[in-house]
Design a protein that fits this description.
about 675 residues; alpha/beta; Rossmann fold; Immunoglobulin-like; binds alpha-D-galactopyranose
């Protein structure tokens, strides 16, 4: 449980009373009660208000705020306010300001703008966190610490450059080892002194905002280093908070598929993962589901927090669609179904000025409760009260795992060739979606995760194979597991150095094939996947594009071949028996029909079946508690749809109604059943 003081799904979100007068806040408190709101995230962007100069701290407004909220039944998710530095600090201490990709020194402005290697930032961020901890350590309102906000962005200043060299010394020991790892004899890059190494940005090795680089080795390491630098400043605050409040959990809000930080590394450092979910109107619901599962995977399946979502619309998309009636509740329960123990919004009240004034909020500019958005929010709030502690701390139990790795993603994106069209997240999502359509739960796992509990492990485009990973995968298959990997896998080690002796390198004996060449064609150009003998649920032909590995079967059996081009007849899908299990290799990027039929087939072979059968667009997933399953049935369609309970009789956890057999679920409806 995140915090025993509030043993239910927390309901609330970001709240900025410092922007409002006393009467408005009184109105808010009245409305929070109507909406069942029991937690407010405060102090996210108040550093300038809390610390007026180097030595003056003033928390009067925060004392009052916390007191008033708590007296009105609202607990506190207490932010440390370090996500935007004060203007006076930027003026007096230029080192807090970042240098951007083009080498420009930033002025004051924006947010999430501090250099993580700035001595000033580190000193004052830690100090204010400590002051907050000392001040509120015994306050019963405080449920959790919310450090900073949405860490992200890279800095290329001199302090970062210097720290990068130290980071490199730490990782490699000697300059010789760095030269080796980055293959610096290429283009005459040999380094003889540490300070010859400069940050890889638009002034040195990279271009197009970092989408391209001349040297993958240094660019990869700079991403690792910047991710670690931000993580270090998080840890600095966390540790000082822990010193004073060892029992209050600490989190920072992550951003799902955000590319720049290695979240698996971050997850290890947090007591509970929290994240901000902002799909747009056309984001596939299975993409949102996958992102929730990824966030759950950061701490090996532990419940996470939905820290932010909008009750209605965003302001920062080109077209900010309203969430259609029912969608806010539906997506909130989708988060819970995938493992969230909180439902929280950005924001509780819409601000009056600046860039987020058109961002949705529970309380809109009109200021009263007679709005569609408020009514929907209040309805959900009341339901969450009714659910008490029935759902919290329950777990999703998955037999399928999909491997996701940020460093692999960086390496693929930084790779010069074979194709700019290769999109790691899309390839991963294809496989995820196929299981999702069958209501089969999936864990999104790191390359370090223990594989013992899984029947099927899929590692799409496992381009980078990290030390020890191939051995763990082999052990998994030896013990009877089914493993799937795809084209452009097993190519490089952690430094983006090619594993010599034929692709897919360390995975070669596991999949029983080798890839001689890789063809890359403009994505509108397709080849065919042809089955000459029937295999499971697969049809005779499918389409594939983007990359085409030209592979030779060694110990593997050929299940399908290319239908065209000069490699017509060469294998495109193979299966290799290995120990007690089998390993498949999918040599090109297949259409979704192939992925679906292929996933259906291997699921059937492994005797894996989804929770209930349901119409398209009706998602079913279970969380388990005390050995009992709680099923979430969610109709993402704008029309009614059906699902089937099979032989089960299920009870609605909100209404007590029971269901059996074929059931109609209303448009965008949610049922929580046991
Ligand atoms: C992020 C931030 C919030 C707010 C929202 C708007 O998630 O954390 O402060 O800006 O976006 O969608
Ligand atoms: Zn910097």
């Amino acid at each position: 449980m995140i915090n025993e003081n509030l043993p239910k799904i927390w309901y609330g979100g970001d709240y900025n009373p410092e922007q409002w007068d006393h009467e408005t806040v009184s109105e808010d408190l009245r409305m929070f009660k109507l909406a069942g709101i029991d937690v407010a995230t405060v102090n996210v962007f108040s550093w300038a208000l809390n610390q007026t100069d180097e030595n003056t701290y003033d928390f009067t407004w925060l004392d009052e705020t916390i007191e008033r909220l708590y007296k009105n039944g609202v607990y506190i998710c207490l932010a440390t306010s370090t996500a935007a530095h004060p203007a006076w600090m930027a003026k007096k201490y230029p080192d807090v300001r970042r240098v951007d990709f083009e080498g420009k020194k930033r002025q004051f402005g924006g947010r999430h703008n501090s250099c993580p290697n700035s001595p000033t930032y580190r000193k004052y961020a830690e100090r204010i966190a400590e002051k907050l901890a000392e001040r509120y350590k015994d306050h019963p309102a405080v449920l959790i610490w919310h450090v900073s906000n949405e860490y992200g962005g890279y800095c290329y200043c001199d302090n970062c450059q210097k720290s990068f060299r130290v980071w490199l010394k730490d990782r490699y020991g000697t300059l010789e080892a760095v030269n080796e790892a980055w293959n610096t004899r290429f283009w005459g890059h040999t380094f003889y002194e540490w300070d010859e190494i400069v940050a890889p940005n638009g002034l040195s090795e990279e271009w197009q905002g970092g989408r391209n680089t001349n040297f993958q080795g240094i660019s990869l390491d700079y991403r690792r280093f910047q991710s670690d630098s931000l993580l270090d400043v998080f840890k600095l605050e966390r540790d000082v908070l822990k010193k004073h409040t060892p029992n209050i959990p600490v989190t920072t809000n992550l951003m799902g598929l955000y590319p720049e930080l290695d979240y698996f590394k971050w997850g290890k450092e947090m007591d509970v993962v929290s994240w901000d979910n902002y799909p747009s109107i056309d984001t596939p619901v299975s993409m949102t589901a996958m992102t929730h599962d990824l966030m759950r995977g950061l701490r090996s399946g532990q419940p996470f927090m939905l820290m932010e979502q909008t009750p209605s619309q965003q302001n920062w998309q080109p077209y900010n669609a309203l969430k259609r009636p029912g969608v806010m509740k539906l997506w909130s329960y989708q988060a819970v179904a995938h493992g969230a123990d909180t439902v929280m919004f950005f924001q509780l009240r819409r601000s009056r000025g600046a860039t987020e004034k058109y961002h949705g909020a529970v309380i809109e500019h009109v200021g009263h409760e007679h709005t569609r958005v408020f009514k929907e929010s209040a309805e959900l709030g009341q339901e969450l009260i009714k659910l008490e502690d029935k759902l919290i701390d329950s777990r999703v139990q998955a037999k399928v795992a999909i491997v996701f790795d940020w460093e692999n993603r960086w390496a693929i994106q930084l790779s010069s060739g074979p194709s700019v069209a290769l999109d790691y997240v899309k390839e991963v999502h294809k496989y995820y979606d196929a299981f999702y359509q069958n209501n089969i739960a999936v864990d999104m796992i790191s390359v370090e995760e223990d594989l013992g509990q899984y029947d099927i492990v899929i590692a799409p485009v496992l381009y980078m194979v990290k030390e020890g990973h191939a051995d763990r995968l082999k052990q998994f298959v030896k013990n009877g597991g089914t493993f799937v990997t795809t084209f452009f896998s097993g190519i490089v080690n952690e430094n983006d150095l090619v594993t010599l002796g034929g692709y897919p390198g360390e995975l070669r004996d596991l999949v029983g094939i080798w890839a001689e060449e890789i063809d890359a064609l403009e994505p509108s150009h397709y080849n065919e996947i042809v089955f000459e003998r029937s295999f499971g649920k697969l049809s005779d032909t499918y389409k594939c594009n983007i990359l085409f590995d030209l592979i030779h079967a060694e110990t593997a059996e050929v299940l399908a071949t290319y239908g065209a081009d000069f490699y017509q007849g060469m294998p495109v899908l193979t299966r290799n028996k290995y120990g007690e299990g089998e390993a498949y290799y999918v040599a090109s990027s297949p259409d979704q029909a192939f992925v679906q039929d292929f996933v259906d087939t291997i699921s059937e072979i492994k005797n894996l079946h989804g929770e209930l059968t349901s119409a398209k667009g009706v998602e079913v997933i279970a969380r388990e508690k005390h050995g009992e399953k709680i099923l979430f049935v969610m109709n993402h369609n704008a029309e009614t749809a059906t699902f089937d309970t099979g032989d089960l009789t299920l009870e609605d956890q909100l209404t007590g109604e029971t269901y059996n057999g074929s059931v109609v679920i209303q448009a965008r409806g949610v049922l929580i059943l046991k």
